[in-house]
Design a protein that fits this description.
Keywords: Coiled coil. By secondary structure, the chain is mainly alpha-helical. The protein folds into three domains: 9-101, Helix Hairpins; 110-179; 204-280, no CATH class. It contains six helices and six strands; from the N terminus they run αααββββαβαβα. It has a three-stranded antiparallel β-sheet. The termini are far apart.
Amino acid sequence: MALFKRKSKMEKLQKHLTELRSRAAALSDKRASAETALAEAMVDREKHMLTGDLADEQTAHKLQAKVDSYQSQWSGIAAALVALQPQITDIEQKIAAEQEGIQRAAAANKLDRQIAAIETALPKYLEHSRVLADALAEIAHWHFESGQMTSFIVGDMGQVEVAAGFALAELKRMPGAIREGQQAIPRDVPQSGLVAEIKPLPPTQTVFMLRSAKYHDHDGRARFAGQYEDAMMPVPTAQRALHHGVAVSVADPRRAQLRGARGGDFNPSASDVVDLDAIEEPKGVPYIGSDIADPVLRAANFQPLDRGPERMLKVTP
């Protein structure tokens, strides 16, 4: 004998939603086909009006009938899609409400178990505290610290009993309020996990290219910068381009005159394309020229110092 499992309300709603979405997708495809056919029929009708025999009423009526037919078909499908959307929205809302109900029931049941655990543990805690307080009280008359502990335990027991009376009464009302949607679902304590380290993005600089150039970015990917266009590149690469006159600062007046002059007509394989990665820089202090973008460094106006011939000093004792 075969046993059939009865579908839950959620399963029925999800099945209905799947069917509605499938129907909506099928209607959307039909609407697209009708739209294409309507456009072709309108083109044929216009072509007949512009170049055909205007006295041929039969052909004109036939072409107009095709336009009317596809127009009606498209309108009917569009109306069906409009009528279908509220049904889909209604089912989605019902599924969301059902899911919330399931979550609320689970949260309320969990809270019921937690309250039962508190009610079970509280008398045991008070009983063991009372036993400990009695044991300490027997020696409290000659041992000061034991007397202090006794006072603390007895006071703590009184406060816990009073607080538990209010807290348990409030907690016992919460599961019903959660089920009825009158109270938010309690959130679980988030588990602490390792936070992925966010690495800062490597510094870049935007320059205006006077010549086309190729280079590699921070990730080693090959890049191309066209002539008379802005290019963002790693700072050392940008400094190299500025140093060798391949690029200028975006504040340079030539940018306003020349930007986009090439119109995107570039050939990355051309012989005049500069390979910025192949340019060797002299060792020592990095170049800081007049084209540097930083206004503070530009205003500093660093100038190389003249150096005379080497001299050797001899110190005699």
